[in-house]
Design a protein that fits this description.
It contains 17 helices and 14 strands. It folds into three domains: 9-90, Alpha-Beta Plaits (2-Layer Sandwich), CATH 3.30.70.260; 136-230, Malic enzyme, N-terminal domain (Rossmann fold, 3-Layer(aba) Sandwich), CATH 3.40.50.10380; 236-458, 3-Layer(aba) Sandwich (Rossmann fold). It is of the alpha/beta class. It is globular and about 70 Å long. Helix 11 (271-283) links the parallel strand 9 (263-267) and strand 10. The chain has helices spanning 21-32, 61-72, 85-90, 106-112, 116-126, 131-134, 157-176, 190-200, 216-227, 235-254, 271-283, 306-314, 324-327, 369-372, 396-406, 413-426, 446-455; strands at 9-16, 36-45, 50-57, 77-84, 140-145, 179-184, 206-209, 232-234, 263-267, 287-292, 295-296, 333-336, 356-359, 378-381. Strands 11-10-9-12-13-14 form a six-stranded mixed sheet, covered by helices on one side.
């Protein structure tokens, strides 16, 4: 088993015989069992025993248990305690509120709170546009979910969605210095969600809809955009679309093809798939076929839902029909935002020469990226342990930074296109390579370039 991300990282506290050679035996056993040792600390050394903390990563939860069992089998070793580092990181939550002003004296209180704050409230009452300057509104975003489509976990509800929303808020702060607040709603009724967001909107400069299932998310976004005077952005749709277009722009450069002339197959007709298709068409793509569970969507099919009928009408100009395997023949590009293991790597050779494969389903992609790499010219996924990670963190912090800086009231298709170009252009001609089509989320220039593209201001 190949050990992967630190999301399955554990620390084992071991009691061992007073022989430092045992530590080496533990490390050897972990490696033989497919784990990766990232730290070994002898925390206590006595004449009768050693206390050793061993941190290692595994491929999944069951593999973590296998590593613990393997270490317990080493002679002279007792596993005293096992800590899951991801759960330890979440204890007490990942974000907090901190005051930006000192509150040490009566004088401080009189300005930050009563009576001084009353003067500021009246100033905003008399000049409502000053609320962005005189409050947190100008730098705040509500991260709103109903918990109906959380990561790849499905409809797990608002409480279980909270750790994800906290993480989103932390990313806003880390990459764009935006104060974001998790708003987890105990309803999955469209009218109630819309009304709840409308009622809290005065306190925010933007709304980031997150992990709301399709097709409900489409109506919620549409109605909020109509009723609110602040931008509403569904990251699962538009953030994903921005980064996919940026990555595809550079992937096509690697294989010397043009967006307007390639055949694209998109697997997944939900929120992400619909937004990706919309942005690809706006960018100039001409031949896009969308495939769902029953096959290619075609305008000739009268049995489609209203959402799929609209999507089919905008795509599939050749009226292709059939399964994913069938429509993949002679396609230049595959973009998957659907389900794990639905694409057989052996189908990739049937695609056009130098095919591009984006397998983005999380946590398990449509095809193993390593297997896809045997046949495709360029491969991308949502995983951090392979090259070319398609990650929304490349987009949403800069998008909202630009929207807030500009005092924008809406998000436009043109903004999304400019953001995708900004991300693609961050990879220089010298850096561009089939294994490097998209910058790292930690690239120091990504957020400010995207923000500048959105706001129209020079960075």
């Amino acid at each position: 088993m190949a050990a992967t991300a630190s999301s399955y990282s554990i620390t084992m506290r071991l009691y061992t015989a007073p022989d430092h050679g045992v530590v080496g035996a533990v490390a050897t056993q972990i490696a033989a069992s497919g784990g990766v040792v990232t730290a070994i600390d002898v925390t206590e050394s006595r004449h009768d025993r050693l206390v050793v903390d061993v941190t290692c990563s595994a491929s999944d939860a069951s593999h973590s248990e296998e590593l613990v069992a393997a270490v317990a089998g080493v002679e002279g070793v007792t596993v005293h305690k096992v800590s899951d580092r991801t759960f330890l990181l979440h204890l007490g939550g990942k974000i907090s509120v901190q005051s930006k002003v000192p509150l040490r004296t009566r004088d401080d209180l009189s300005m930050a709170y009563t009576p001084g704050v009353g003067r500021v409230s009246m100033a905003i009452y008399e000049n409502p546009e000053d609320v962005r300057k005189l409050t947190i509104k100008g730098n705040s975003v509500a991260v709103v979910t109903d918990g109906s489509a959380v990561l790849g976990l499905g409809n797990i509800g608002p409480g279980a969605a909270l750790p994800v929303m906290e993480g989103k808020a932390a990313l806003f702060k880390r990459f764009a210095d935006i104060d974001a607040w998790p708003i987890c709603l105990a309803t999955q009724d469209t009218d109630e969600i819309v009304r709840a967001v409308e009622m809290i909107a005065p306190g925010f400069g933007g709304i980031n809809l997150e992990d709301i299932a399709a097709p409900r998310c489409f109506e919620i976004e549409r109605r909020l955009r109509e009723s609110l005077d602040i931008p509403v952005f569904h990251d699962d749709q538009h953030g994903t679309a921005i980064v996919v277009l940026a990555a595809l722009t550079n992937a096509l450069r690697c294989v010397d093809k043009e967006l307007a002339s390639v055949r694209i197959v998109v697997s997944g007709a939900g929120a992400a798939g619909t937004a990706i298709v919309t942005l690809l068409l706006a960018a100039g793509a001409k031949d896009v076929v969308v495939v769902d569970r029953v096959g290619a969507l075609s305008a000739d099919d009268s049995s489609l839902s209203s959402a799929h009928t609209e999507l089919a009408a905008a795509t599939n100009p050749r009226r292709a029909t059939g399964s994913l395997q069938e429509v993949l023949v002679d396609a230049d590009v595959f973009v998957g935002v659907s389900a794990p293991n639905i694409l057989d790597a052996e189908w990739i050779p049937t695609m056009a020469p130098k095919p591009v494969v984006f397998a983005l389903a999380n946590p398990d992609p449509e095809v193993d990226p390593a297997l896809a790499g045997k046949y495709a010219a360029v491969v991308a996924s949502g995983r951090s342990d392979y090259p070319n990670q398609i990650n929304n963190v490349l987009a949403f912090p800069g998008v909202f930074r630009g929207l807030l800086d500009a005092g924008a009231e809406d998000v436009t298709i043109d903004m999304l296109l400019r953001a995708a170009k900004a991300i693609a252009d961050t990879v220089s001609a010298e850096e561009l390579h089939p294994a490097f089509i998209i910058p790292s989320v930690f690239h120091p220039d990504v957020t400010k370039r995207v923000a500048s593209a959105i706001s129209g201001r020079e960075s």
